[in-house]
Design goal:
It contains eight helices and five strands. The protein has two domains: 31 residues; 159 residues, SGNH hydrolase (Rossmann fold, 3-Layer(aba) Sandwich). Helix content is 47%, strand content 10%. By secondary structure, the protein is an alpha/beta fold. It is globular and about 40 Å long. It has a five-stranded parallel beta sheet with strand order 2-1-3-4-5, with helices on both faces.
């Protein structure tokens, strides 16, 4: 016959066994313990973001400029060179001596007639020589807005160096600061790529300079 002491010991041992058994059942229901046991599932990998679609290639381009865009009898100008790079037609609307107000006058009509994907603008040198810096910047923004209203991508070039006059070149740099701040335009920084030794007569680029202009514009597409 068991004594009361033995009975108490048996009850305690049974209680400990019951607690251990219940604990094991709980662990089994929770997945078998810690993650080190190898039974827990790994977190789902984060899917890679879908890359943005590439912009469509240009099907036609309108170029608007001044005598730099005509070559001024010094070199083949940048618009036909750009056409060769892009393998797309470039409608050249460059006229010697023109300022940015010329671009404001013609851009709507030319975009409506040609229906281009892009318009490339290199104007402001004559504004730096004999016009208004503030008007030049405002006119260029007006041109960019006209393009955006027609879903045409506007690419605006900063002005190459004017080597014949420090004061004219300083004004060109002021216009360049405004060009870099244009809203809604892609900027082709010609000032950073066309060096002073590529300017043939103080204003107009030589053939190497014209090619660099075309290359820099093409990189903005």
């Amino acid at each position: 016959m068991f004594t009361s002491k033995n009975n108490s010991t048996t009850v305690r041992e049974f209680s400990r066994f019951l607690v251990l058994y219940v604990g094991l059942l709980f662990l089994a229901a929770c997945g078998g313990g810690s993650s080190d046991s190898g039974t827990s599932s790994a977190p789902e990998p984060t899917p890679a973001p879908t890359p943005a679609p590439a912009p469509p290639p240009p099907t036609s381009v309108v170029a608007i400029g001044d005598s730099i865009g005509t070559g001024f009898g010094i070199a083949t100008p940048w618009p036909p060179l750009l056409a060769d790079i892009l393998d797309a037609p470039v409608n050249n609307n460059s006229i010697s001596g023109e300022q940015t107000n010329f671009g404001v006058r013609i851009i709507g009509q030319r975009l409506d007639e040609v229906q281009p994907t892009h318009v490339v603008i290199l104007l402001g040198t004559n504004d730096a020589i004999r016009g208004s810096v503030d008007n030049a910047i405002a006119n260029l923004q007006t041109m960019v807005d006209a393009a955006r209203n027609r879903d045409v991508i506007a690419i605006v070039g900063t002005l190459p160096p004017i080597t014949r006059s420090a004061s004219e070149d300083a004004r060109a740099q002021q216009i360049n600061a405004g060009i870099r701040g244009l809203s809604g335009a892609r900027i082709a920084d010609l000032r950073a790529t066309v060096s002073r030794n590529m300017i043939a007569d103080g204003v107009h680029p030589n053939q190497m300079g014209q090619q660099i202009i075309a290359d820099t514009f093409a990189n903005a597409f």
